[in-house]
Write a structure and sequence with these properties.
alpha+beta, Alpha-Beta Plaits, 4 helices, 4 strands, 32% helix, oxidoreductase, monooxygenase activity, EC 1.14.-.-, monooxygenase, Antibiotic biosynthesis monooxygenase family protein
Length: 112
């Protein structure tokens, strides 16, 4: 499993941002290999972190190459005041089972 973490500082979002964001989110969810996502906000730093989970690196690459994703990336300075992307391979997931982890529970290595 892979994760792509998109960390950003936002400016003002407009209708075009929301339109592109919706298209990209729908495309990601429809792609084979998409497992889910989580969003975190840090009010102290003003940063937002979106973490997307993928079954394979190829499925993640498919979203990166999507034409609307490329369009939004080219216009990022309209809406973002800086960003960073971190691509990671997930080696293992585990916990005390008190938090439901629906997107990861079906994987055989989860819980190890």
């Amino acid at each position: 499993m892979y994760s792509s973490t998109f960390i950003f500082a936002s400016k003002q979002f407009d209708d075009e941002f929301h339109r592109l964001d919706r298209i990209i989110a729908d495309a990601a969810k429809a792609m084979p290999g998409y497992l889910g996502e989580e969003t975190w906000e840090n009010s102290a730093s003003g940063l937002t972190s979106n973490v997307y989970y993928w079954d394979t690196l190829e499925s993640l690459q498919a979203l990166i190459q999507h034409p609307v994703h490329q369009q939004a990336k080219a216009a990022h300075s309209n809406w973002l005041n800086g960003y960073r992307v971190i691509i990671s391979e997930v080696l293992r997931t585990y916990g005390d089972n008190l938090l439901q982890d629906d997107l990861l529970q079906h994987r055989p290595e989860s819980g190890q």
